[in-house]
Amino acid sequence: MNTKNTLSAERARKTVMSVVLTLVCVIYMLPVLSVVVNSFKGNTYVKTETFSLPDEDSYVGFDNFEKGMTFGNYPFWKSVAYSAFITIVSTALILLFTSMAAWYIARVNSVVCKLIYYLCVFSMVVPFQMVMFTLSKTADTLHLNTPWTIPIVYLGFGAGLSIFMFVGFVKSIPIEIEEAASIDGCGPIRTYFRIVFPMLKPTMISVGILEIMWIWNDYLLPYLVLDINEFRTIPIHIQYLKGSYGTVDLGATMALILLSIIPVIVFYLICQKYIIKGVAAGAVKG
Asked: What is the pTM of this model?
């Protein structure tokens, strides 16, 4: 009897938890659903009937998408190209250089390496607003204010989290594997690329997902560093969907927001199973 009561209580607890978590998921999805719904409605109806479904009066089909992509004299495809280039190159630099740095920090037990590690960890808690003006001035001085050079700036900002995760994972790799490679004649570079780099795959994927989602959606850093009249990423392009006297076409804005989040959502859904695995693998080992 007690066993039946225990099973019933456990089943009821799981049911309640499922209902609660479902409601939480729905609440989190409401902003995304609102963007999807409003991207197919006219500008006036987006303002007056924000949370209603499109009807025969408010539905405009794909007009908002066409209007958003052809608005002004700056083509939307150009913004997509800049965002894609910056995201891909920045993520590649972060993964390569921070993984190499983390491997060196984890294997060389010196005061300097520990200091560098703690500085990288400390950078994770420094608000961007504290350094954004100094950063903008430095980027202009060093000529890092183009899409081809801004990945170097992203490398600096993304190093903290990446090194933190990579160091934890490298510590879990038995050093005997690297010692065996050294005995076989591998130098540090060959040891890293032939032995360590393949074993970093779980954390690589996890860090890559997080960095891609951050860089693709980032607005403030490109806005401060790049010449927005010549180089516009997707978030900056969306911000400039303004007509005369500062009026904003909300329908076209919602359409472009939807287009901008679709690649990230698809990428995240494909790779989400690697996030927990990578975070767990990169947990700091004692």
From this structure: 0.83
- The CATH superfamily assigned to 76-281 is MetI-like (1.10.3720.10)
CA 186 from centroid of its chain's CA atoms: 35
The per-residue pLDDT for range 66-107, each reduced to its tens digit, is 888 887 778 888 999 999 999 999 999 999 999 999 999 988
Amino acid found at 238: I
Phi, psi of 151 (to 5 degrees): -55, -30
**Helices vs strands, H then E, count in the chain:** 15, 0
Q: Return the DSSP state at 242.
A: B
Q: What's the token pair of residue 23?
A: 């409601």
* Distance of alpha carbon 187 from the chain centroid: 34
Distances in whole angstroms, Cα of residue 170 to Cα of each of 99, 109, 182, 240, 274: 9, 13, 17, 44, 17
Q: Where are the domains of the chain?
A: 1-29, 76-281
